[in-house]
Amino acid sequence: PNKELIPQQTLMELLVQGLDDKSVFRYGSGECQDCGCWYGVSISDSKVVTIDWGVDLMYEAAFNEEEDLPQIGGSIYLHWIPDSVTSFNIAHMKLSGTIDTSLLPSCLLRFHVSDNKFSGEFITKGLPRSIENVDVDVNALFGNLDLTEIPASVRCFFAARNHFCGNLDFTSLPSGLKILSLNGNSFCGDISLQFLPASIEFLTLEDNKFDQETLILSADLPRLHVIRIDPESFFDIHDTAGSKYVKVSASGTKTELK
After folding, report:
1. How do residues 99-120 score in pLDDT, each as one tens digit?
2. Are 218 and 196 in contact (CB under 8 A)?
3. In 34-94, which residue ranges form alpha helices assigned H by DSSP?
């Protein structure tokens, strides 16, 4: 759809038409409120720039009692997000749908949809070129995940606990990437971490299907804090300078290395 020809009010109403709870967007008469008055929506120059309906699990009880917050459940049609939106957060809303990355707003900087019921493929090549934070943790997304097509602007990328599979290529990650969360999927094959960006601080790879004798990491990782892996997946772990990585803590069968 050509969203530029559709009023923003209409786009917002189309965006939420599948939510189980739409009462928070309407007056008692049933008429829809102006979207600028909706909870979590910020307007600038008559354009929607922020949509924040994410549930803070620490305050979920209070959330469920608050009348002006949309309750969880239903479906959502992400292709109706107004093109002016730079931040979109529906974390923990338990909403179903699909994610066509090519239809997300080109100016989008933050995309947080963790702990929902999104299914289908997630095509990294279609992501907005300026996006910085991507969080699709805990959904039902499947297929291959092409790390080489993650936009250069991305700083944090969360895709844990989905149904992704196939091989992973770590050779072309964004130079400023700090967090990469890929645990709890079905990734397999041999991996090499020799070309991780020097900016990386946190990497999770546990609960996948890797099985190889040697895992080699870059020796130039000055900011690296933790890598989480399944210890049984790799017999030997060392960096390109020959230094072995040592276990610093363990929780169950998961090992943290640094």
Report:
1. 999 999 999 999 999 999 999 9
2. yes
3. 60-65
Cα distances from 26 to residues 74, 211, 239, 244, in angstroms, run: 17, 54, 58, 60
Closest by CA to 122, choosing from 179, 172, 164, is 164
Q: Specify whether the CB–CB gap between 82 and 47 falls below 8 A.
A: yes
Specify whether the CB–CB gap between 73 and 20 falls below 8 A.
yes
Number of domains within the chain: 2
Which residue segment(s) compose the domain that 226 sits in? 126-134+144-258
Long-range pairs, 166-171, Cβ under 8 A, ≥24: 167/191, 170/195, 170/196, 171/195
Instruction: Answer whether residue 139 is part of any domain.
Output: no
The closest of 188, 196, 189, 231 to 216, measured between CA atoms, is 196
pTM: 0.90
Q: Do 106 and 130 reside in the same domain of the chain?
A: no
Identify the top-confidence range among 22-36, 60-74, 164-178, 211-225.
164-178
Cβ neighbour number for residue 124 with a 10 Å cutoff: 18
